[in-house]
Design a protein that fits this description.
alpha/beta, seven-stranded mixed beta sheet, three-stranded antiparallel beta sheet
Length: 389
Amino acid sequence: MNALHTAPLENFLRETIGLAADSLGRGAVERAARKRMADAGCDRVTDYVDKLRRDERLRQQLIEELVVPETWFFRDQQPFALLARLAVKHARPVRVLSMPCSTGEEPYSIAMALLGAGLAPDAFCIDAVDISGRALALARQASYGTNSFRGEDGSARDTWFKSENGRWQLDERVRSRVTFHQANLFEFTATVRYDFIFCRNLLIYFDAPMQSAAATRLLTLLQDDGVLFVGHAEAAVLLRENMAALPEPRTFAFVRKAAGAAVPSAITRTPTPIRRNALATQSLTPPPFSDVKPRPATVVAREGKPAGSSLAGIQELADRGQFEEALKRIQVHIEEQGPAADSFCLLGVIHEVHGHGALRFHLLSQPADLFRCADAVGGGDPVAHIVAG
């Protein structure tokens, strides 16, 4: 079978949904193209692209062919724990955006975390956005198999779900807090700005110019004091956009960085929420991760080597532009504390921003390589989706 010349289709995908074909693999694009072109009655890619421009139905069919909904409840625990600790401090109703939301596990996890932290149902709202109509249909059903709970210890399932015909049906108290929308990142029209945005493992599927455009778009959706959560491999993108990482291990949470401003300090305790949820007074199983505290980092200096420091301190050095010192300290930290996803990721981010071409500790300076390394040392975050939104 002769290979298709898919460049016109790749250009179309980039300009419409931001997808860089290299990130997905041209083989995947070609397979999807062959299937959808046959259904559309097209022999040439250029003819197919012309039809795509005119026919929204054909465009959506192609998108559904490309998306891979891979997600589960409380996927990567720490972001939800941090969200709960921060959200209870808000004097205004908390607004959260989950994009891409896939089949709903992430926005529903957000709702469970906030309810479990004591926020009343009317103290927050969640908008969940995805480009896939198929995924959204499943999200609205809120019925899940056991595979959706592989990142959860069972307490959330026991508290917020009931078993029905071999599946788990989500409680209406959680479902009612999430509103679903079909759109991609660049087309989504928001009526509010959000206090928290979860946009994890989307930017890795864009090339550098589109990553920058996506980051700019996300910032227009984010409150001035809002927090943006991204995936492991996307930290370098936000640092390039002058964002600052919160010093909370494995959360990959970012805030706007004002000129000369210090990085925000860690959140170490949970303040009293503005409105207590009546559910919190019932004898429910404590929400997962509600008692998580940042891990202390202790470093002992070795003779003849520079003293290391906490990851938060190293991050602050890098944010101030002291890259060489930050590199020395993170390398000492890894030698003394052993390999960990947090340390390797920070090392890769520093190298990425500082412009080094090759990294020690077998890391490369591209986000996708950093992503794979984090996965190899136990901090992996498998792909949730492959297109914008």
